[in-house]
Amino acid sequence: MNVQVNYFGKIAESLNMSNEIIPISDNLMPLNLRNFFEDRYPHLKESSYKIAVNQEFTEEIKSNVQISEIALLPPFAGG
């Protein structure tokens, strides 16, 4: 399946893109997303961020889950 991945803040800046489409094979399920993205982009290992799938925080995709979006979110500041 092809999945829309959105990057925000410093993550988007470091990757020089705000989104991309990534193919994720059902053969990879269950999939640890932190490991997946840090293997794909090793400099993310040095970053603090959260991962959301379908607007819910999680770090793993289990099998038989329909994914509409994955987002990598850096820490937020403000008030």
Structure described in brief:
The chain is an alpha+beta fold and 79 residues long.
Q: Cα distance, first to last residue? A: 38 Å
Helical residue percent band? 10-25%
**In total, how many domains does the architecture comprise?**
1
Estimate what percentage of residues fall within beta strands. 25-35%
CATH-wise, what's the superfamily? Beta-grasp domain
Characteristics:
79 residues, alpha+beta, Ubiquitin-like (UB roll), two-stranded antiparallel sheet, 2 helices, 7 strands, globular
Structure description:
The structure is a single chain. The termini are far apart. The chain has two helices and seven strands. The longest helix has 8 residues, at 33-40. The chain has a five-stranded mixed beta sheet. Strands 3-6 form a two-stranded antiparallel ribbon. It is globular, with a radius of gyration of 12 Å. 19% of the residues lie in helices and 32% in strands. It is an alpha+beta fold. It has one domain (2-73): Ubiquitin-like (UB roll) (Roll), CATH 3.10.20.30.
